[in-house]
Request: fold
Amino acid sequence: AQTVTQSQPEMSVQEAETVTLSCTYDTSESDYYLFWYKQPPSRQMILVIRQEAYKQQNATENRFSVNFQKAAKSFSLKISDSQLGDAAMYFCAYRSAAGGTSYGKLTFGQGTILTVHP
Amino acid sequence: DTAVSQTPKYLVTQMGNDKSIKCEQNLGHDTMYWYKQDSKKFLKIMFSYNNKELIINETVPNRFSPKSPDKAHLNLHINSLELGDSAVYFCASSRRQGNQPQHFGDGTRLSIL
Reply:
């Protein structure tokens, strides 16, 4: 079974600075997808960014980018020019690309609470 | 315009009661999911349906019974509620194949007294 680990329960950053959230995962599969979701206090789950394991290029979405290290099974999220609205809990998630009964299932990490200081 | 909508948003009830949470998506997705987020914010899949067919059942007690009348709806019925059922329940949907992300509802906070 796959596991996802976020080793930083809490992180903080000054507004306009850059912060990196860590995520590692364990899998024996070669094809899969990785996601970062954001959960603000409003409780919504909002997709931040996604990465296909077969792609070597790191995904970017505006101020958000990832550092995907497949051999190290690492998938960190970098937030540049942090804004107050980035304050939230961030979840890393794994999804298998294989068929079968687990297909589509997201396995989440424990989450990292990000605080942004003005 | 809401993509994935859950009702109710809050549910407060007593131990032993039976309750249902409804979920509907208007995204044309073929797969729907239920996740449970516990008091420590940990999210775990409970069920997944693809075109009304049960695909995933993650060792959830059989007091929990999902029902999918059509591929746009996935309801969750819970019998004989227990204190440990207190949590936030999220419905989500996606296309099953590829890297399609899951779109989540706003969650239902269930509190058992």
In short: Chain B has a mean pLDDT of 92.
